[in-house]
Design brief:
This protein has 14 helices and 15 strands. The protein is of the alpha/beta class.
Length: 387
C-alpha cells in the first residue's frame, strides 16, 4: 500500500497504552478482522513506533489472507530499551523487568484479546514472552508461539494442547519452501545455488539450516556484528555450533569478514533479507546482483525499491508470501495440531501460495507483490461484503 493513500481496509483499531509507574509504552493496531481475529506478533524494540506497527499490521492482513487461514491482520509493539540484554538472558534483572512489561501490556489490551486480537512472537519476543502474556490474562488462547512443554486442557475437551514455539523454525522453514519454488521457477537448481542471508536470528538460522539440507550453498551471512563471505560456503559444523552457542558468524569466521557494503554487492543466485524493516534501501539497492530475492523479514524494502529491483530483472518473493510460516504455525497451534502436522501445513500452504503468485505474475507481466495483493484483497473484500 502506498504511503499517504487512504486505506480502505483499516485500521479498525489503533490502541496506545502506558503504564506510567512501570514506564511501559506500547501499541496495538488491529488492521482488519474480516477473515477472523487479528493475528500478529508483539515487537519489542527501543524505537518501535505506532506508524511502524500500522505498516506491519496491514501486512499481516494480506499475509493471512494469502496463506488461506481464518485470521485477520494485527500487530503490537512495546518500547523495550533493554532488548539485547534481555533476549540473550544474560541479565536476570532485565528479564524480570521484561516480564513486567509484557504482562502490563497484556492486561492493558485484554478487552481486545481473542475476539479482535491474538498475540504472537516477533522481534525480541519468543516462547517465554508468550507464556508470560497468556498467564497475565489467564487465557491460553490469547497468544500463540508458547513453549512446547507449556500445555493446558482447553475448550472443555479431553487431553491437553501444547504450545508450538516459533523457535521450532516454522518461519525459516516456510522461507526455504518459498525459495525452492522461486529457484525452480527461475530455472536455478536449488542444489548448488549460492545464497546470501542478511540477519541470523531465529528466521535466518533456520533458513540456513533448511536450505543447506536442500543442497544450497550459503556463501554470505550478515548480522548486527558484521558480515562474512566464502565462495565455497562455510563449515556446516562450525555454523551450527555458532548457532547453538549464539556466537555471531562474524566471530566464528573472523578470517572471512567483509564490509557490509561488500555483502550487498556479492553476486549470488539468491539473496534473503531476514533482518529488519527497510534493510534494503537507497544506500545499497544499486549494489545488489542477486537473481532472486526472497523476503524473509517484514518490509525489508519499500515498495518503490522493490518495483525498481523487480523491473531490473530480479525475481522477488514478497514478505507476506515467504515468511507466512510463522502465522501458519500459529494457526496450527490455535487448532491444537502437533509440530509434524504444523510443518506439513506450512509446506503445503507456502508452496501453493508461491506457485500461484509467480505463475500469475509471469502470465500477467505484473510484479509478484501486485499479483499477491490482488489475490489477498479479493478474499478480504468478499468477506467484508458478506458480513
Amino acid at each position: 500500500m502506498k504511503k499517504n493513500t487512504i486505506d480502505l481496509y483499516g485500521p479498525e483499531y489503533v490502541v496506545e497504552v502506558k503504564d506510567v509507574k512501570l514506564g511501559m509504552e506500547g501499541f496495538l493496531v488491529i488492521h482488519n478482522t474480516a477473515l477472523g481475529p487479528g493475528k500478529g506478533g508483539i515487537r519489542m524494540t527501543p524505537d518501535v513506533t505506532v506508524e511502524e506497527v500500522k505498516r506491519l499490521a496491514s501486512t499481516m492482513t494480506w499475509k493471512n489472507s494469502l496463506a488461506g487461514i481464518p485470521f485477520g491482520g494485527a500487530k503490537a509493539g512495546i518500547k523495550w530499551p533493554s532488548s539485547a540484554k534481555a533476549t540473550e538472558g544474560k541479565n536476570p534483572t532485565d528479564n524480570e523487568l521484561k516480564k513486567k512489561f509484557v504482562q502490563s501490556f497484556a492486561r492493558a489490551i485484554k478487552p481486545f484479546l481473542i475476539k479482535k486480537y491474538i498475540g504472537g512472537p516477533d522481534v525480541n519476543s519468543g516462547e517465554k514472552e508468550m507464556q508470560w502474556f497468556v498467564e497475565a490474562v489467564s487465557n491460553w488462547r490469547a497468544a500463540t508461539g508458547k513453549p512446547a512443554n507449556y500445555c493446558m486442557k482447553v475448550f472443555g475437551r479431553e487431553g491437553e494442547r501444547c504450545g508450538i514455539p516459533h523457535e521450532f523454525g516454522s518461519t525459516g522453514f516456510g522461507v526455504a519452501q518459498a525459495t525452492a519454488v522461486a529457484a525452480k521457477f527461475a530455472n536455478i537448481p536449488i542444489k548448488g545455488a549460492t545464497v546470501a542471508i542478511h540477519g541470523f536470528g531465529n528466521v535466518g538460522t533456520f533458513v540456513y539450516q533448511f536450505l543447506t539440507e536442500m543442497g544450497a550453498r550459503v556463501v554470505a551471512i550478515a548480522d548486527t556484528n558484521g558480515a562474512v563471505y566464502s565462495s565455497d560456503g562455510f563449515d556446516d559444523k562450525v555454523v551450527r555450533k555458532s548457532i547453538d552457542e549464539k556466537i555471531s558468524p562474524s566471530v566464528a569466521f573472523n578470517s572471512n569478514r567483509i564490509s557490509m557494503e561488500d555483502f550487498w554487492s556479492k553476486s549470488v543466485d539468491i539473496l534473503i533479507p531476514a533482518s529488519v524493516t527497510d534493510v534494503i534501501n537507497d544506500s545499497n539497492k544499486k549494489s545488489i546482483k542477486a537473481k532472486i530475492i526472497v523476503e524473509a523479514g517484514n518490509i525489508p524494502m519499500s515498495e518503490s525499491i522493490e518495483k525498481e529491483l523487480a523491473s531490473s530483472g530480479i525475481l522477488i518473493v514478497p514478505d507476506f508470501i515467504a515468511n507466512a510460516g510463522g502465522v501458519i504455525s500459529s494457526y496450527a497451534e490455535y487448532r491444537g495440531y502437533n509440530s509434524k502436522r504444523m510443518f506439513d501445513l506450512v509446506e503445503r500452504k507456502i508452496t501453493k501460495a508461491t506457485e500461484e503468485v509467480l505463475r500469475q505474475s509471469a502470465k500477467t507481466k505484473k510484479h509478484p507483490r501486485a499479483v499477491a495483493m490482488e489475490i489477498a484483497v479479493s478474499r478480504v473484500e468478499k468477506k467484508m461484503k458478506s458480513r
